[in-house]
Write a structure and sequence with these properties.
The chain has about 110 residues and is α+β, with helices and mostly antiparallel strands. It contains two helices and six strands; from the N terminus they run E-H-E-E-E-E-E-H.
Length: about 110
């Protein structure tokens, strides 16, 4: 049995393989050519949002990304409602102070 394969962008495929990098490709049957075709598929690289920690609080943290300030808090139910409300207010003040301090440092 004779096997025929058509490689689209063969120069790019050979260059990538010779460089020792991984190659993502789409292998499909082409009715017009009557053979299997291999087409290099190099999707764009995914950008990873990096966040920096501004402040660690008793029950959470404040982080900064390119577009947002994120405040994450988790309170255990065992504290009770009054303690949770007080801790929430205290952590909110700490988060505001951390954001303001960060802005002052970045503007200097």
């Amino acid at each position: 049995m004779r096997k025929i394969v058509w490689v689209i962008n063969a120069a790019e495929v050979v260059k990538t393989v010779k460089a020792g990098r991984k190659l993502q490709a789409v292998i499909a049957w082409d009715d017009k050519l009557g053979m299997v075709t291999i087409k290099a598929n190099n999707p764009p690289k995914v950008k990873v949002n990096k966040s920096s920690l501004l402040c660690r609080m008793d029950f959470g943290k404040v982080t900064e990304t390119a577009k947002f300030y994120r405040v994450n808090e988790n309170f255990p139910k065992a504290l009770g409602l009054d303690c949770i409300k007080k801790a929430f207010d205290r952590d909110a003040k700490d988060a505001k102070a951390a954001i303001v301090t960060n802005e002052m440092i970045n503007r200097v």
